[in-house]
Amino acid sequence: MGKLDGKVVIVTGAGRGIGKGIALHLAKEDAKVVVASRNKDTVDDVVRQIHDMKKSAVGVTVDVGNREQVNRMVERAVKAFGPVEVLVNVAQSWGSPNRHDLSPPETPLEEIPEEEWDHTFRTGLKGTLYGMTAVFPSMKEHRWGRIINFGSPLAMAGKARMAAYNITKEAIRSLSLTAAHEWAAYGITVNCILPAILTDSMKDHFQDQAVLEAFMKQLPMGRLGDPEKDAGGLVAFLASDDASYLTGLSIILDGGAAH
Questions:
Q1: For 224, which DSSP code?
Q2: What gap in Å lies between CA 89 and CA 19, rounded to an integer?
Q3: Does residue 165 have an active-site annotation?
């Protein structure tokens, strides 16, 4: 029996990167996983990998910046497995709807176009909010729920030339703390993880492998985190009964780099 035996979990942004690693780890902990992302092919691939482990999963194609689609995602989860008990909000896009960069574009603050502000807020802050409000009624009714959102250590540090991304991620962190205070009375915990994880997005950000390796050598542990082991392991803990008294936290998952 796994740490999350039978728990119904939605992971957004689960088609690749951190979200994919989390979805795979939670499946190994015996959760019933709803794999949600924009790209059907990547969703189907992650579901197949979970089924190959003889674990439970269904896939949903969703634009988290669209409230109706998010509501349908939750309805699909309930139809497949029952009431949603854990929501993991990883999905976040940047740039513009017509671009699919793996990492946030670096643009001077004064030059960021209106469409980039709007797209980043819609898919990040609003997407997180839409998911939270969609699962809240059921969690409130059952007096139990776990919500895990994702911020960024770069945003917390105010990294230059990434204003739209930074502000959105910090807003998600503030949203998480506010919800933790408001929803604690219903047995719902809300926490925010700020990860430094080695993903395709991170590799794209550094572009050159040698530069990436030099960067990792400067870190206390000499490496970036693993999507499944490190991010997935922390999410599994926060989603479990073991973390019932932890809420409103911003957890920097970076191997000590920011401390």
A1: P
A2: 8
A3: yes
Domain definitions of the chain by residue range: 8-199+227-245
For residues 207-229, b (16+ Cβ closer than 10 Å) or e, as one string? eeeeebeeebeeeeeeebbbbbe
Overall size of the chain counted in residues:
259
Residue 38 to residue 110: CA distance in whole angstroms: 30
Helix then strand then coil, % of the chain, to nearest 5: 50, 15, 35
Tell the residue number behind the tokens 């047995």, with chain if given: 187
pLDDT in tens, 136-163: 999 999 999 999 999 999 999 999 999 9
Query: Alpha carbon of 211 to those of 132, 153, 217: distances in Å?
Result: 38, 20, 10
Task: Give the 3-state secondary structure of residue 5.
Answer: coil
Overall CATH class of domain 8-199+227-245: alpha beta
| pLDDT (mean) for 39-59 | 98
Q: pLDDT by residue (tens digit) across 165-214?
A: 999 999 999 999 999 999 999 999 999 999 989 877 666 666 778 777 87
User: b/e for 134-151, b at 16 or more Cβ within 10 A?
Assistant: bbbebbeeeebbbbbbbb
The whole-number pLDDT of residue 205 equals 64
The reported pLDDT for the residue numbered 202 is 67
Which region among 9-13, 83-87, 101-105 has the lowest average model confidence (pLDDT)? Answer: 101-105
